[in-house]
Amino acid sequence: MGFLDAILGRSKPVRPDLDQLFALPSAAVTLEAGAGFTPTGLGSVCFASVEGGAFTRLRQDVRDLLDADTGRGGVPVEFSQDAYGYTWLLARQPAESEGAAALVNDLHAVNTLLQDAGFGPQLLCSLLGFRDAAGRPLALVYLYKRGTFYPFAPVPGGGDKRDNGLELQAKALLADDLRIEEDLSRWFPVWGAPGL
Known about the structure:
Largest sheet: 6 strands, antiparallel
Helix content: 25-40%
Strand content: 15-25%
Radius of gyration: 17 Å
């Protein structure tokens, strides 16, 4: 940062710490042992929408990268846009504990491609989906700008209601596995996010 930037209060965008995602497989083991939540095999990346040829090429690069794993048997990645105009990329892997590590590798690779292509400042969050035996959903959400995680637990069939008790239980369980966001006001709801 230059002298003039410091005087005018400008700062460079924070570069996401993508390696934080590699803590998710151990967190998945902790969630399964402590609360009975297992990975769904679904994970997603959210970023501010961008237009143009560079992004079109990047979408194809992402598809090519994830399609290189020919054992998937299906569409490895899907792109969608939410009501707020954000782009979501949904990745799939087998829904087992070992699949969580492979899914995290996919999410990290996608995020690295986005960052290396100059779209790092547009990255908002990534999430990894979980369910328990009763079918309750839970997501571990990573906030790029903060470098922290938080649990998000929508109530099934409850509209826009959250299971705050479950979120706080997950926070306590994962305190040793993940860098949990301490400011609860930053635990933003991601209603209808692909991967939940």
